[in-house]
Amino acid sequence: MAGTKAAYICDAVRTPIGRFSGALAHFRCDDLAAAPIKALMSRHPNLDWGMVQEVVLGCANQSGEDNRNVARMAALLSGLPHTVPGTTINRLCASGLDAVGTGARSISAGELDLVIAGGVESMTRAPFVMGKAELAFSRSVGMEDTTIGWRFVNPVMKERYGVDTMPQTGENVARDFGISREDQDAFAVRSQARAAAARASGFFSEEIVPLEVKDAKGKKVGLFEHDEHPRPDTSIEMLAKLKPLFPPEGTVTAGNAAGINDGAAAMVLASEAAAVRHGLTPRARILGMASAGVEPRVMGIGPVSAVQSLMARLNLTIKDFDVIELNEAFASQSLAVLRGLGVPDDAEHVNPHGGAISLGHPLGMSGSRLALTAVHSLEKSKGKFALCTLCVGVGQGLALAMERV
Questions:
Q1: Per-residue pLDDT reduced to its tens digit, 68-94
Q2: Read out DSSP for 352-370?
Q3: Could you say which of 93, 229, 353, 376 is catalytic?
Q4: Chain centre distance of CA 130
Q5: Distance, CA of 72 to CA of 54 (rounded, Å)
Q6: pLDDT beyond 90 at 210
Q7: d(CA 366, CA 258)
């Protein structure tokens, strides 16, 4: 990354990912965001947490309990001193990765030395919102579901670019880039199988912080320790029976698309001097981040341009990456991106422990989860370079590269 200092990921943790209306349904989003920060603080009891200069979190919704700058709320709720500031970034699905890259850029520029970065989303608790009446004493109101996708659509935007839903963009990519239903389902089965193998090996237990789960009345009902979304018994035969979301020729189904989920992640970013000063061990150096814009109707292809821009700046090729964490918004766009970058559909170093189709996709968390898992994967594989990338609603892509220390 350009600048005078290197930025390092020194530690990173996440919550288990919950299903929609699942184990995390009774966690407020701001409390959920605070959980991994609390875990980091407990893992480093001798660190002077008052020296943290910024908390940067990604969050896509920000219409309910995640309003009022959820990063600042999480910082206060976690027990960080009130002197530690916080800011929230919204690049929709890539918000969490943008938070990591933004924190790293601040360190690289020499403005900050110690940052907490991450992301959060409670899609379960995303509220319905009501717009104000256009006329005085009007008896009609508009209500929108903020869980995912468009709301309060600008008519000029609709006329110029369309306002395709997220699944529709996945279908557009499948059609435009010739991605078959069979290939999409095969990709989804691989994602589920890899996630199941990773859990069986204990891979995720090293990055997950268990949460005490309570019911609607506040009574403790148990410990939530594992991702809730995976379906390890998924097979090609099972997926083939699912109806497409856009019949009759559609190819995108609930089985080859990401889930609607809840979760949070956080990590400690530091300059080399700060790592030494605070007794932190650098695990990976962030090399750079790049974004790109594409047509909104094929937003899923966004990572191709972002990755190409990043590689050109860093003088790297796609073959240099030992680990690639590609957000699986839809199998169709994941395959289109891989093919666009010249990577085999079933490459073992791409999402080697599963992806959003199997693990889930809490929008604001997902990008930081990719970065966290990429660090973990590099350490396990003894690889050198990792790439994290996501497509973004309304037509964008974001990519970040790192190097194992």
A1: 999 999 999 999 999 999 999 999 999
A2: BTB-HHHH---HHHHHHHH
A3: 93
A4: 27
A5: 9
A6: yes
A7: 11
The full set of domains in the chain, from first to last, is: 7-126+164-404 (3.40.47.10)
Classify residue 342 as exposed, middle or buried by CB count within 10 Å of its CB (0-12, 13-18, 19+): exposed
Single-letter residue type at 233: D
Which residue of the set 229, 278, 353, 361 is catalytic? 361
Rounded CA-CA distance 163/146 in Å is 15
Is 93 assigned a catalytic role? yes
Token code pair at residue 26: 């009774």
pLDDT digits (tens, 9 = 90+) for 328-369: 999 999 999 999 999 999 999 999 999 999 999 999 999 999
CA-only gyration radius of the chain, Å: 20
Q: Tell me the C-alpha distance between 226 and 208, whole Å.
A: 8
What's 86's DSSP letter? E
Clarify whether 10 is annotated catalytic.
Answer: no
State yes or no: is 361 an active-site residue: yes
Using CA atoms, how far residue 313 sits from 244, 381, 401, in Å, is 40, 26, 11
Catalytic residue (one of 10, 29, 59, 391) = 391
